[in-house]
Write a structure and sequence with these properties.
Layout lengths: L1 H22 L7 E6 L2 E7 L10 E9 L10 E6 L7 E3 L1 E6 L2 E6 L5 E11 L2 E11 L1
The structure holds copper (II) ion (CU).
Copper (II) ion binds next to loops.
Pfam families: YtkA (PF13115)
Protein name: FixH family protein
Organism: Cohnella zeiphila
């Protein structure tokens, strides 16, 4: 009897873990979050993997500490490969809705890349490096 209860307990625990795994909030693709300098910033991939020599895009959201969207944020995004010297490519950024920006760039090689976001808001510079994969 005791053994059976233990099995039921284990099954319930497993069930709870599976439920948690499927229901926890998660970004669809890679996402990097930053909080500091009075800002909350997120950079997320728009697809699961970028393709070499094709446009790839990222969604950047910028909010203040209170969660209010920061419109017209001064920023740039440079795409490059960490530890390589194969070039730096500036992404084109457009604000698609208040505080939400779309950045588009073209990675030139396969491998591990970073999108380095530099925000110039509130009189200081915040830098957020978001890693992504190019296939
Ligand atoms: Cu490279």
């Amino acid at each position: 009897m005791k053994k059976r209860l233990a099995w039921i307990g284990a099954a319930l625990a497993l069930f709870a873990i599976v439920l948690w795994l499927f229901n926890r909030p998660q970004a669809a693709y890679g996402m990097t979050a930053f909080e500091g300098d009075g800002l909350r910033v997120q950079i997320a991939d728009s697809s699961d993997a970028a393709k070499v020599m094709e446009e790839t895009s990222f969604t950047v959201s910028v909010n203040d500490k209170a969660g209010k969207p920061v419109s017209g944020a001064k920023m740039n995004i440079i795409l490059s490969m960490p530890n390589m010297f194969c070039g730096e490519y500036e992404a084109t950024i457009t604000e698609t809705s208040p505080g939400v920006y779309r950045a588009v760039g073209v990675p030139t090689m396969r491998g591990k890349w970073q999108a380095k976001l530099t925000l110039s808001e509130n009189g200081h510079k915040s830098v957020v490096a978001h890693l992504f994969k190019v296939v």
